[in-house]
Specification:
The complex is a heterodimer of chains A (116) and B (114). Chain A is mainly beta and 116 residues long. Helices cover 0% and strands 48% of the residues of chain A. Chain A is built from no helices and eleven strands. In chain A, the strands form two sheets. In chain A, strands 2, 4, 5, 6, 9, 10 and 11 form a seven-stranded mixed sheet that branches. A four-stranded antiparallel sheet of chain A has the order 1-3-8-7, with no helix packed on it. Chain A is globular, with a radius of gyration of 13 Å. The N and C termini of chain A lie far apart (36 Å). In chain B, strands 2, 4, 5, 9, 10 and 11 form a six-stranded mixed sheet that branches. Classes of the chains: A mainly beta (116), B mainly beta (114). The interface between A and B is medium-sized, with 31 and 26 residues.
């Protein structure tokens, strides 16, 4: 009974490299959300995806960041040409439907990106 | 523009006493509120929620109170236990948008002393 699985848990990248973070939602969940937590801050919504569709990307930075949730396989958050300010914890969450009641959104354990 | 605010970064409480964590919001469109608990290096875990049509919701040791006129909610934990020591996040959503977009506060670190 696996929960939301994120990998890698920790990732170190040099400035200018690409970072790819993967998220496998809970079984039966078709809605995926990505959040970012900067040091000493709360979680900030980035993007909401369903299979093969981006529903809401209002929290995504305009450049260098992209997300996908293909028909097969995990959701991927891609950060191109990383900068030090991208260092953060990135959390994925999933839910079975869009009519969530809060307690049906489950978070993964996060991926910690460090840019050196 | 912080729409959800937790003005107390930290709170220390003696075991067995009540812990009260507070949260204020500015957006009157929010209609669903949640509390999450988070341990270091882990993801947030859902604790309790409340719809804007209610003013109280209780689940075991946890009770959430909502004061819509004051745009304020609070989480009461009683009795507090050392295992409750964690960061607590308040979150809100405008359900009509239905996108699963939660707006989080900055968090309050609770320490329960034995």
């Amino acid at each position: 009974n696996a929960g939301v699985m994120q990998n890698p848990r920790h990732l170190v990248r040099r400035r200018g490299q690409e970072a790819r973070l993967r998220c496998s939602p809970m079984k039966g969940h078709s809605h995926v959300y990505w959040y970012r937590q900067l040091p000493e801050e709360g979680l900030k919504f980035m993007v909401y995806l369903q299979k093969e569709n981006i529903i809401d990307e209002s929290g995504m930075p305009k450049e260098r960041f992209s997300a996908e949730f293909p028909k097969e396989g995990p959701s991927i958050l891609r950060i191109q040409q990383v900068v030090r300010g991208d260092s953060a914890a990135y959390f994925c969450a999933s839910s079975p439907t869009s009519d969530y009641s809060g307690n049906t959104i489950y978070f993964g354990e996060g991926s910690w990106l460090t840019v050196v | 523009d912080q729409q959800v605010k937790q003005n107390s970064p930290s709170l220390s409480v003696q075991e067995g006493r009540i812990s009260i964590l507070n949260c204020d919001y500015t957006n009157s469109m929010f209609d669903y509120f949640l509390w999450y608990k988070k341990y270091p290096a882990e993801g947030p875990t859902f604790l309790i929620s409340i719809s804007s049509i209610k003013d109280k919701n209780e689940d075991g040791r946890f009770t959430v109170f909502l004061n819509k006129s004051a745009k304020h909610l609070s989480l009461h934990i009683v009795p507090s236990q050392p295992g409750d020591s964690a960061v607590y996040f308040c979150a809100a959503s405008a359900g009509s948008s239905n996108t699963g977009k939660l707006i989080f506060g900055q968090g309050t670190t609770l320490q329960v002393k034995p």
